[in-house]
Design goal:
Layout lengths: L9 E5 L3 H13 L3 E5 L2 H10 L4 E5 L7 H10 L8 E5 L4 H10 L3 E4 L4 H37 L7 H15 L4 H13 L9 H4 L7 H7 L2 H9 L9 H6 L20
Parallel strand pairs: 1-2, 1-3, 3-4, 4-5
Length: 263
Amino acid sequence: MCPSPILTGTILVADDNLANLELLSGLLEVEGHQVRCVLDGRQALDVLRTDSIDLALLDVMMPEADGFAVCQAIKTNPETRFIPVVLVTALTGSAERIRGIECGADDFLSKPIKREELLARVRSLLRLKQFTDVLESAETVLFSLALSIEAKDPYTEGHCDRLAKYSVALAERLDLPAEIQQALRRAGTVHDIGKVAVPDHILLKPGPLDSDEWKIMKQHPLIGERICRPLKSFRHVLPIIRHHHEKLDGSGYPTVSRVRIYR
């Protein structure tokens, strides 16, 4: 069996006990990780605002802000919510573990720390963070491509951003689930990405399109769907991209008869 490649990252360690900080940082630095050590929850939040962190190890019992509060702050901030969080605790009660799960903790470590357990959990969560980073990079590329297409035509400038904001505002008013709100935000931004395959002489034509040009233009929802299909996180976005030019009376394009179900 081939060994897994060694992943290293920048790890935030927060503990008000200097001996614990020295122990954790020593074990992690030997493995090649960069470690940021802080003594309380407020310092931890400061580091998270200024540094690029791949993983956070948080002692539960800390001054200023405890590990639960810091974890919840990380997971509710869109800029840090994908950072894996491990809560380190001497508490053994199920109530504390349940509270940690409710705050969004990804894992737990019990004191006293065991080296093998620490390193195994760190390796596992860094792999998870790597996959998340790849996903975020793919989304960023798609969003940039979509906005570059929109920027070609001054008439549509700002259209995607407005559509995303209006869609999310309506979803919030209807109290739709968070994942649907996120899908609407994404779809608002990338719904026209299929226009990358439409030649500029058609896309930017000042007058009406002829029948052959319309055939090409009508393909952009299907092309956009194909471009975004590899991203599993876009499963709620794909039908929006595909059908955004259809109308309630069955007109528009592509036709309603070609509706697909995404699971």
